[in-house]
Amino acid sequence: MRSRTPKRKATAAAATVLMNSTRAVFFDRDGTLMEDAHYCGDPAQVKVFPCVPDALRKLKEAGFRTFVVTNQSGIGRGLITLAQYRTVEAEMLRQIGEGLLDASYFCPDAPGVPSTRRKPEPGMLLEAAADFDIDLAGSYLIGDKSADIECGRRAGASTILVQTGYGAEQVCRPDFTAADVVQAVQLVLERAVGKGA
Ligand SMILES: [Mg+2]
């Protein structure tokens, strides 16, 4: 059907979608928003990086939606329980503060199990895009692993590799690199201003 639509009409429809859509920044959790604690099941180990709340606040003020997208194969591997994951997530949200994240998506699948959601698969971003009417082409994925960057790329988002967590040892081709999540957010905001958004 779409290919049969007259060209002028298709362009107008595309413009309407663009105007109505919302941009987002998707954050990996471990090594990006907080220190990487291997298969973290203990809220006492949660250490959100300094200035993350301030950076998220600036993104919200600029009109971005903000999401966490995190692989949690520790659940699928039987190393942590879903309840433990929830307590860790609650502590992270407590340290970040109210109202700065729109939603958090996690994938419990272990490697080797067919999964459309486990990064580098883009399933979690596609879910969020459907749930919140997100324009993925105008959105960003910020993470510390090549699987994050590949996930963002497959979803059609721009990608930023941070050097925290495992970032320094990754071999991949992100659109941008940044020292940490605060610098990555600065980059997003500068680009948003540059585009007159
Ligand atoms: Mg990570």
Structural features, described:
The chain is of the alpha/beta class. It has a single domain (2-9, 18-194), classed as HAD superfamily/HAD-like (Rossmann fold), CATH 3.40.50.1000. It is built from 7 helices and 6 strands, in the order αβαβααβαβαββα. It has helices spanning 7-20, 52-61, 73-76, 82-96, 123-132, 146-155, 181-194, and strands spanning 24-27, 65-71, 103-107, 140-143, 158-162, 176-178. α6 (146-155) links the parallel β4 and β5 (158-162). α2 packs parallel to α7 (181-194). It binds magnesium ion (MG). Residues 28, 30-32, 143-145, 165 line the site of magnesium ion. The site of magnesium ion (MG) has 8 residues, from loops.
Task: Determine and state the CATH class.
Answer: Alpha Beta
- Number of distinct beta strands: 6
Radius of gyration: 17 Å
The ligands found in this model are:
magnesium ion
For the report, how would you describe the main beta sheet?
6 strands, parallel
- Count of DSSP-assigned helices: 7
Stated plainly, the CATH topology is called: Rossmann fold
- CATH architecture grouping: 3-Layer(aba) Sandwich
Query: How many domains is the backbone divided into?
Result: 1
List low-pLDDT spans.
1-13
Q: What portion of the residues fall into strands of 2 or more residues?
A: 5-15%
Cα shape: globular
Helix content percent band: 25-40%
Order of secondary-structure elements: HEHEHHEHEHEEH
Mean of pLDDT: 91
CATH superfamily: HAD superfamily/HAD-like
Widest beta sheet: strand line-up: 3-2-1-4-5-6
Report the end-to-end length measured between terminal Cα atoms.
32 Å
Alpha-beta classification: alpha/beta
